Amino acid sequence: MADQVAPENPTPAAAPTVRPKQRVSHRGRSAGGRASSNQQEGKVEEFEPFMLMPRGPPPLTEYLDIFDVDVLKQPNEVNKQAHHTHLYSSNFLIVRRAQEFQIKITFNRPYKPAEDKFAVEFVIGPVPQYSKGTYIPVFPTAKRQSVWSGRVIESSENVVTMGITPSAECIVGKYMTYIGVETPYGIRRTRRDPNTDIYILFNPWSPADPVFLDDEEEREECVMNELGIIYHGAYDDVSERAWNYGQFEFGVLDACLFVMDKADMPLSNRGDVVKVTRVASAMLNSRDDDGVLVGNWSGDYMYGVPPTSWTGSVEILLDHANSSGTPVCYAQCWVYAAVFNTFLRCLGIPSRVVTNFFSAHDNDGNLKMDIILDENGKLDRNRTKDSIWNYHCWNECYMARPDLPSGFGGWQVVDATPQETSDGMFRCGPASVAAIKHGQICYPFDAPFVFAEVNSDVVFYRRRKDGILEVVKVNQTHVGRMVLTKAVLHSGRRDITNQYKFPEGSPEERRVLEKAEEFGCQREKSSPALSDVDVEIHSLDVNVGENFDVTLQFTNRSDQRRTADVYITGTVVYYTGVPSGEVVFKTPKVKLEPMQSKEEKVLVRSEDYMNKLVEQRNIHFIATGKIKETGQIITAMKVIAMHHPKLTVKVTGSPRVSEEMYVSVEFTNPFKFSLENVDLRVEGPGVLPFKYKQYSVIAPGTSITWTEAFSPRRAGSTKVFAKLDCAALRQVYGETELTVQE
Amino acid sequence: MADQVAPENPTPAAAPTVRPKQRVSHRGRSAGGRASSNQQEGKVEEFEPFMLMPRGPPPLTEYLDIFDVDVLKQPNEVNKQAHHTHLYSSNFLIVRRAQEFQIKITFNRPYKPAEDKFAVEFVIGPVPQYSKGTYIPVFPTAKRQSVWSGRVIESSENVVTMGITPSAECIVGKYMTYIGVETPYGIRRTRRDPNTDIYILFNPWSPADPVFLDDEEEREECVMNELGIIYHGAYDDVSERAWNYGQFEFGVLDACLFVMDKADMPLSNRGDVVKVTRVASAMLNSRDDDGVLVGNWSGDYMYGVPPTSWTGSVEILLDHANSSGTPVCYAQCWVYAAVFNTFLRCLGIPSRVVTNFFSAHDNDGNLKMDIILDENGKLDRNRTKDSIWNYHCWNECYMARPDLPSGFGGWQVVDATPQETSDGMFRCGPASVAAIKHGQICYPFDAPFVFAEVNSDVVFYRRRKDGILEVVKVNQTHVGRMVLTKAVLHSGRRDITNQYKFPEGSPEERRVLEKAEEFGCQREKSSPALSDVDVEIHSLDVNVGENFDVTLQFTNRSDQRRTADVYITGTVVYYTGVPSGEVVFKTPKVKLEPMQSKEEKVLVRSEDYMNKLVEQRNIHFIATGKIKETGQIITAMKVIAMHHPKLTVKVTGSPRVSEEMYVSVEFTNPFKFSLENVDLRVEGPGVLPFKYKQYSVIAPGTSITWTEAFSPRRAGSTKVFAKLDCAALRQVYGETELTVQE
């Protein structure tokens, strides 16, 4: 009831049905837009008057004028050599922080330090501000200095050679260069000249920079090396993939800066390596934020490139940048890690790709992987949900951690593969490797998740009739069995497991796990009595398409007879440990005399598994069983990664810089079925940009040979490698080494 | 060149132009979908055979059968009283963790503990799993117990009263209840019966629960109180808003659980208060993740409800849930904080809304707010980008922090207002208040950002002609001037500034700032000489629409003459400190005799500001100037929050539970212009669900009276309050108190 005549509308305001756009204007909320783009250019006045000048600037003829600015950007000139940036194929000067570089300025007359006042000005982004580090003037005189120091190195006639040292915290990205001359009326500037633009990168060679890495060989490997080796397969049967990181390829540096622009990352944060790596770990996957790569583990790659087909990062980063940020299809963990590695090395952050074998992927962040058996000890597939990745790849990058107490700098885990972290976001790290080794998982970022990936226990439960789960066995050594990365400056492996954990069973290891529990990691406490009968699974190397035997090795350690009812299942699994099809199921009953050892063979025939194979052709065998006399449970697990045909890669011609030579890739289809829509890729770091070819069909027994001409871009030893990929046969791989002469 | 006839397609695979859908199937990546929905129900077999039964289950007549299950859910029954959940208007049983509740089971015959085997089973989500805490059987016998304990309290004839105690870490949400009887053939279950569904919440009353708060009055305020007071305005002229949190209103609990479902939060994480609060801080804003509320500070609220118009959380949460998760328009910080508070209290997490006056909103996370003056000491608006919010509201919630070293439990800051955190994500916290007070900002989550909000310095720079900024003044006391929250169990204020910081200038404060710097906070080091002339700004309370004086108070502390060239600007600002229109600019020249004090008045006329007012009607005065004799800079700042007309709210009738009474809201338009499209809202916690009315126009000088009938739902003292809101006049407010008798 309202005693007023004004028309009324008593319906409550409902939530709008149109979904509001996610980016509401910043008006009223922040002063001016955010400076979060390196591509946008702020306007810089050519004349900046000190007072009102109705008639515009007066003639300034008697003041210093600039004829030419040379930033000495040729690869063979002083700057790129001294700053380790000569390998970038780029038309611009590229230097590193906290290290002097030189520019030559030609004036209209000799420079007179006493009266002439000029400054070299560096500008980045749309709203240049001195206090935000996006506008930096540099002065030639010792008494006037800004956050970047400057000095006159040489002055002859009209030419001044000036030395400029960017601060160790300055923003990493692309700057515009101006020269401003101060006159009584105002500041007169040079015109915008793209030729004088300068990229400034992180500097692992400078002790002042948080990414300083005090080991020349490590820097050569983790910053300068374009050729990578990524490990996969099974921990006891490791395979390798070569990868072309291509951080120096034309356009890659701009593509990396574009990733930060796409992330809308404030420029003022881009000098902080912790923030840069964290933002990148989120941006490299397309979850949440339309990042670089779309993850796909389904086996169906119709709408993109199969993850197993890529040979390098260049194609991916350029696709993303050239499509103004459309996510690229498809990636799995090693693709994320490899592209992330390119991003990091390209910006000057020391980094490497590591592979963790048997990586726990536990989406509630506790330290248990649950395997559930029924009352008879048979695996209960429906109730077993956790999966252990046969391997998982992530990155380590090297940096100080000023945001943490001392002792946690050095290598840091970052992971761009979208996983369900307990934090619910698809990003991970940087997490200090030292903190993980010592169980100090209370420090950012995401340390508990990484800790679980290498330290989880595998817990076998027997499900009682009344629904309760009884722990029957705890395997504390299965997960995080081995962490590998490429060796420094040669192609061997490097086992860095001991940087993540103390030796299994050592007192230090126990203390670390207790420490981690203090910070909320839940572990399985009960330690059920060990069975007096053991079982192990063995097998020889297996080539895809062959029949093979799996051997169950039983050992009775008791002085009584034992009878084992055993269930052995062999299942084709994705590398994520997720089961696809079951290929064999046997239930042998084994009688064991006191102290007896005995073998039981299980035959697996090719027709049982060939039609079920997925992706990387792993067959996961689990043997479980119950000892009749004692009721104890015995278990064993083994992943068999099948070997597959190889590609033959040959290079012919004399390997000299910019002399033409040829690579030929040969393959013979060894199967009784024909291969369809076959992708073939070949590339070689520094010598051969990636090439792609498709064969619609390769009939059984037939061979193909693909030859391409190329001419090496630079000297040194490198590899040329190729991948063949199709739905029926993934990641067939071949490589050859070559050394290019000047 | 390929020596094979197969057709070829040498074009490289380009990135697909169709944007791939963000949710690729989990196939191959994880075993089965994630259990991240409380709404989906897992299938539970009515009969679960132990062996194959071709002919289906045999007759089970001789075994125990269940006639009835009573979960004693009436508000006056034992459970809700003991668990402090009697106020929830809900048709279901609602209890808390780590505390026993009772259910009555009626069997077909007396229960024989010796032979009868039954279990009460609780199931949550689509894939019930004992090891993930989503399937929990509870047994009546001491020797068979699961993670939840059970006992028989009383057994008379066919009726058994059972006591059930959920574990202190169990998942918070809605469970289904079954009773399973074990027979030799299998487990026989009761049918699904929604009447026996049970909500389990956090338990601040139980020492075992991480949210335990050992103070009954605090619990009454921070968990049970639906009536809130939220502070705003200026620190020296604080205003209040009453708010109806309405955490017990019908449907609100389900709406809160829906928020976690919308966030796709794994059920197994929902027992962890740290993870729940962190996910919620991201989900309550619509950035990144289509959360509950769309932020809008622009002054244009055409497509939704103006932030200043809301009177409570119920309308918002129900809108969101009923529109299957469409973000609700619009919110500003206090709306985010208020709705977040409802979420937290509803789930049983002790929480309160706090207001920080002069909150630094610094988007590069250092500790400086930059104000830039030109050579003459005049404010340079174009170069001054940082803004200081006149106030900012966030939440504190109370919990242990098992993920951190000891000493950092207790109150934690969480903030749902989307700000540019250095982490780039629109979420914040939980960050330990104790850690912030002691500068221990190396612990998660987002502590450095909160630390900056209360500890930043205001730095005045003079911009030299050559572009360099000279620090001329550092104000270390302006930011984080005062932190307020509602007092416990009465409507007074509580100043909790000392929980965030040590006293300004104390040695502890200095140590804390040094500690924070160790963790990467950058502060302004230079401390320029203090001027020997001071200036302050004073003014009396101002009612909107009036002319008023602003007084500049000058004091010359030197024994010489001083001349000050002063610039004073008054600018209408949003509460975010962002300038809108300039209303006055004067440049008095003041001559001061030695040791003299002098006043200078500046008149501000209503016609200068009335047409420029925005939102909350703050005028921000900044006086800056230069002392001719010394060249020193003097500065002063003051925000004047204008007072505005009030609403008159009256209730008539006798305030008794469920007896009808009336509320009338009166308003007179005091302005010379008419108000259009006026929103009017009224509500009262526990007595009056929100009502809405709109007037298309209120002419100058005319009055409106709006009367509504209502009948109180429960006894106790509460408030009824109303808000009037339109484009020309925001958040006109009125309230009245009443005490309802039984």
Automatic annotation (TrEMBL), chains A, B:
Q: Would the keyword Phosphoprotein be found if you checked this record's keyword annotation?
A: no
Provide the residue span(s) of the region labelled Disordered: 1-44
Q: Which reactions appear under catalytic activity for this entry?
A: L-glutaminyl-[protein] + L-lysyl-[protein] = [protein]-L-lysyl-N(6)-5-L-glutamyl-[protein] + NH4(+)
Task: Identify the cofactor(s).
Answer: Ca(2+)
> Which residue positions does the secretion signal occupy?
none
Enumerate the spans annotated as Transglutaminase-like domain. 325-418
Q: What is its EC number?
A: 2.3.2.13
* Cofactor comment text: Binds 1 Ca(2+) ion per subunit.
| UniProt binding sites for Ca(2+) | 455, 457, 504, 509
Can the keyword Transferase be found in this entry's annotation?
A: yes
**Biased segments, Basic residues type:** 20-29
Q: Where is the composition biased (Low complexity)?
A: 1-17
Record keywords: Acyltransferase, Calcium, Metal-binding, Transferase
Q: Which residues form the active site?
A: 333, 392, 415
Q: Name one GO biological process term.
A: blood coagulation, fibrin clot formation
Single GO molecular function: protein-glutamine gamma-glutamyltransferase activity
Q: Which InterPro entries match?
A: Ig-like_fold, Ig_E-set, Papain-like_cys_pep_sf, Transglutaminase, Transglutaminase-like, Transglutaminase-like_sf, Transglutaminase_animal, Transglutaminase_C
| Family to which the UniProt record says this protein belongs | Belongs to the transglutaminase superfamily. Transglutaminase family.
Query: Protein name, please?
Result: protein-glutamine gamma-glutamyltransferase
This protein's encoding gene? f13a1b
